[in-house]
Amino acid sequence: MSETSDNLKQLPLGDWHRAAGGRMVPFAGYEMPVQYEGVMAEHLWTRENAGLFDVSHMGQLNLTGEGAAEALEALVPGNISALGVGKIRYTLLLAKDGGILDDLMVTNTGRNLYLVVNGATKQDDIAYLEAELPKGITLSHLEDLALLALQGPKAAEALARLDIRSTFPDGPVPGDLYFMEAGPFMWNDIPLGISRSGYTGEDGYEISVSAADAQSLAEALVALPEVQPIGLGARDSLRLEAGLPLYGHDMDAGILPVEANLNFALSKARREEGNFAGAERVLAQYPRGAARKRVGLLVDGRQPVREGAAVVDADGAVIGNVTSGGFSPTLQRPIAMAYVPMELAGSGTQILVEQRKKQITCTVADMPFVPHRYHRKPKL
Amino acid sequence: MSRYFTDEHEWIDVEGDTATVGITDYAQEQLGDIVFVETPEIGAELSAGDDAAVVESVKAASDVYAPISGTVVEANDALEEEPALVNSSAEEDGWFFRLTLTDKAELDDLMDEKAYKAFVEDL
């Protein structure tokens, strides 16, 4: 189905984006702001200050019921049953053959598991989960919630200006959360689910709020001197610099986790148990047994290589493909992600990318391209 | 000198047999921050509609087609160092390339400024 304005869904903040000067484009079935002031300026603003992103297209789901964590573990390789209350884990929804159906965040709220899945895949995810989860586990799609991300080195300073309190007496304020921690909060009698997480490589928060209250929260945030609204364009260039894969581009159902360079998502306990979907195929590649691997590329010259460009050998034979590529505003040079044969996946290896009948030299590089600046809990 | 426009958002300045080609201010605005421009090689013989140049923004690559047939005689080298010239001065300093026209009659198919303005307003 083509994405024309007739069949596109509207975000709760759609009109607000338009009024703020957002240029709306189709994305994941929604009309979403690709940019306001300009991708470059918005990107750099987020790296230096704080950017507000509307990611309400993403699916917010609750899993409830006795044994929900163990039930979910049948479909993901993350150690969900060991997840403490208020902790978040990044994991992968795997098909029966181990192919990646989605990547997602799972939070143990203490009452249930709260999942955030990709917008473009959420309906398929829900269908798969409903078909696979045992009776007694309830999946609810929280469609009346919006999701806002506040990202950047000044995100904590900015959010601290709003009077946000824990729903528990003597509970933490959002600034007390460390990276990959979450909690329930109140702001002006509005409940907020706040996670210290994001998709930019910067410190920041993702804030779940009712669709009805999303606009007042967004307005309060952009009224702060540190905060500007940021579109999808900069979201993509920021996550690319951070080395974070984008589902549907850098991984899909035909890719296994080790190939996708996501070994960290295969937790030790779960590898030993080996009881998640596709475990046999997935673990056969662990840790370095895949034939190909997702790597970062530093591109020679000024011209970006784009998704779909071929990685070729000296004879011009196709040996891999570029899955994301663009210009890095922070590094002021083109960068990319690509799948290359394992023997070429080492950092510093030179490879060739063919684009528009032209060969461009690239160097395999460690990711992230721009260092993460998460607010991690100090190691004891 | 006359300026012509295409529905692909290019402008063409014609002086004698020589045409200077660039993209319009509307086009640069739509593309956003331009980070790279690939201009055609000198001596390339282009037919109207051929791929002539590539303009890359942070997010995407876009083709620029030859608006008319001709032989490339000059490319704007300044774009190599400063592709953002296309953003700051799309219809002046951010020109892409110059052609010697093969068939001046092709100009009859192009829009004048007034027609282009109306075309953009309808988008």
Automatic annotation (TrEMBL), chain A:
Q: Which residues bind substrate?
A: 206
Task: Please give the GO cellular component terms listed in this UniProt entry.
Answer: glycine cleavage complex
Tell me where in this chain the GCVT N-terminal domain is found. 15-268
Q: What residue stretches are annotated with the Aminomethyltransferase C-terminal domain? A: 292-370
Task: Provide a Gene Ontology MF annotation, just one.
Answer: transaminase activity
What reaction gets catalysed by this protein? N(6)-[(R)-S(8)-aminomethyldihydrolipoyl]-L-lysyl-[protein] + (6S)-5,6,7,8-tetrahydrofolate = N(6)-[(R)-dihydrolipoyl]-L-lysyl-[protein] + (6R)-5,10-methylene-5,6,7,8-tetrahydrofolate + NH4(+)
Keyword NAD attached: no
Q: According to the UniProt entry, what is the EC number of this protein? A: 2.1.2.10
UniProtKB keywords:
Aminotransferase, Methyltransferase, Transferase
Biological process (GO), any one:
glycine catabolic process
Q: Which Pfam families match?
A: GCV_T, GCV_T_C
Q: Which residues form a coiled coil?
A: none
Family annotation (InterPro entries): GcvT (IPR006223), GcvT/YgfZ/DmdA (IPR028896), GcvT/YgfZ_C (IPR029043), GcvT_C (IPR013977), GCVT_N (IPR006222), TrmE/GcvT-like (IPR027266)
The family note in this entry says:
Belongs to the GcvT family.
Know the name of this protein?
aminomethyltransferase
Species of provenance:
Parasphingorhabdus marina DSM 22363
Could you read off the lineage of the organism from its UniProt record?
A: Bacteria, Pseudomonadati, Pseudomonadota, Alphaproteobacteria, Sphingomonadales
TrEMBL record, chain B:
What are the UniProt keywords, alphabetically? Lipoyl
Q: Which GO terms describe its biological process?
A: glycine decarboxylation via glycine cleavage system; protein lipoylation
Q: Name one Pfam family in it.
A: GCV_H
A GO cellular-component term linked to this record: glycine cleavage complex
Which residue ranges does the record assign to the Lipoyl-binding domain?
18-100
**Recorded family membership:** Belongs to the GcvH family.
Residues bearing N6-lipoyllysine? 59
| Gene that specifies this protein | gcvH
Gene3D superfamilies found in the cross-reference section? 2.40.50.100
PROSITE patterns in UniProt: BIOTINYL_LIPOYL (PS50968), LIPOYL (PS00189)
Q: Which cofactor does it need?
A: (R)-lipoate
Query: Which InterPro entries would you find in this protein's record?
Result: 2-oxoA_DH_lipoyl-BS, Biotin_lipoyl, GCV_H, GCV_H/Fam206, GCV_H_sub, Single_hybrid_motif
> How does this protein assemble?
The glycine cleavage system is composed of four proteins: P, T, L and H.
Q: How is the cofactor bound?
A: Binds 1 lipoyl cofactor covalently.
Descriptive protein name: Glycine cleavage system H protein
Q: Which NCBIfam families match?
A: gcvH, PRK01202.1
Q: What does this protein do?
A: The glycine cleavage system catalyzes the degradation of glycine. The H protein shuttles the methylamine group of glycine from the P protein to the T protein.
